[in-house]
Amino acid sequence: xPRSGPLxxxxxxxxxxxxxxxxxxxxxxEPRINASEDVVIHLYGPAVTLQCNLTTSPSPLxxxxxxxxxxxxxxxxxxxxxxxxxxxxxxxxxSGEYLCVFVFSNSPIANATIEVRAIPxxxxxxxxxxKNEGQEALMYCKSVGFPHPEWVWRKKVNGVFEDINNSSGxxxxxxxxxxxxxxxxxxxxxxxxxxxQCNATNQVGSVSVTTILRVRSHLxxxxxxxxxxxxxxxxxxxxVIYEKRKRPDEVPDDDEPAGPMKTNSTNxxxxxxxxxxxxx
Length: 280
Fold this sequence. Notes:
- This protein is of the alpha+beta class.
- 20% of the residues lie in helices and 39% in strands.
- The protein contains four helices and 17 strands.
- It has a five-stranded mixed sheet with strand order 2-8-7-4-5, with no helix packed on it. Strands 10-17-16-12-13 form a five-stranded mixed sheet, with no helix packed on it. A four-stranded antiparallel sheet has the order 9-11-15-14, with no helix packed on it.
- A hairpin with a 2-residue loop joins strand 4 and strand 5.
- The longest helix has 22 residues.
- It is elongated, with a radius of gyration of 47 Å.
């Protein structure tokens, strides 16, 4: 008669593992979602429709809705195992990571991801920057479009845009998703003015915009005062020249008497009258 006793340790471990494995029924109840393929949208292109179909549900469905870049899209929630979302006017800002989400009454939620990609569209940047020598200049670019772009700053040298040479250590670049900025400290009037270009590139394409940097002399704040002073000096010079060019007859001679001079004929007439009185 065979001897009964404790089961071997390996056999006990095998039985415990088998108990934890999901059975055929559990595997069949896992949610299955058929979703649209990833899509690339183009400006002024046709409308795009994203679709998801829940083919297998682990428990009764409560609702389905759409999420874009982590936020639920308003007005998309409904109790249906088939859902779609239409992008009527494809633009770069409509691109992103879309999820169709299914909520169940007694099971964890399930979702599928659809990437909508587009070339970057730079929506904001400084067209020009005016600073004084020795100050700091800040130029920036921001964009929409998915995936997030890689940013590169360049400067036009001899008619060609080249990667920025930071041998002076005065150039600082900050890149963050759909935003980039270039700051230049201690501006030099002979080195830094010119055209700067920010370039955004992702899997779909590339786009660039240009900013013009102007650097003025550190005496620039005094220019309005100097202009007024120059006008005053010119006015004084004009007045002095005008006074010196007055005609001589407009200026009385100090050696001449102020009143009218008596002529010799008048004196002779008076002498004649005096003789006549003496005779009488």
